[in-house]
Amino acid sequence: MINKSPVFSDIRVRFKSSIARSIRFAMIYLLIFGITVYFLLVPLRLEGAAEERFGPPRIEVSGTGKIAAPPDFATITLGVEKEGRTATEALRANSESMNALMAKLKNHGIALKQIQTSRFSVTPKYNEPRRNARGVVDDPDFIRRIVGYNVSNSVYVKVRELSKLGSILDSVIEAGANEIRGISFGVENPDKFHDESMRRAMDDAKRKANLLAHESGVLVGSPILIQASEGRVSVYQFDLLQSCPNPSYSPSPTPIAGGEIDFTMTVQVTYTLIEPK
To answer: What is the pLDDT averaged over residues 119-129?
Structure first.
């Protein structure tokens, strides 16, 4: 028979109780360890996920560059408009004045390659019906008829010696030009001014990025995206005279000011941000 003494039974109960407590402590320890590891790793996982989704820290800034340059040429449209009872008569009168105008341009050193016809037209002129004091047509027998013709001839001229521009205008008007439109100024080689304005725009963007990064306690890294606008050119332009009937002139040349031409460029630049070591 098996000895079932009270002492032996008590030992077995205590042993089982000790094992159960050890298992409970182990489970509690593992649970605490698992929770600790979880809360330590979750921020790293979130940070990695955020970086994967949004990329590394970055900053986007805009920069503007501007440079002014003196013009080295001017363009102007000159023209003659003449009337006549017939198309031939109007054309003859117009041609005489245009030939005189072209001769004046040649005398001022304007080459033929700097002159281009921009408009030529022959249009009829019609009679007008009789109207009463209120402006209402009061001519039941009116018949529309051609009473004359108008001939217009205009040329586009490029002037490189800007100091002669006032004298040239005086000469061509004296020769019979009665249409002068759209004087504008430009530069022969605009690329170097566009390039310089772009360099200044990039410098401006980098300056802004460094300023913002410094105030935020970080450093500016490499640019990862650069977008540039097409650029803007502000050209001085004005209308000197339109359809003027042979004005009188003073001995001094007509004063013309070329001013300056502004070249402006804008860029959008995205830089990475670096934590200082």
So the answer is: 92
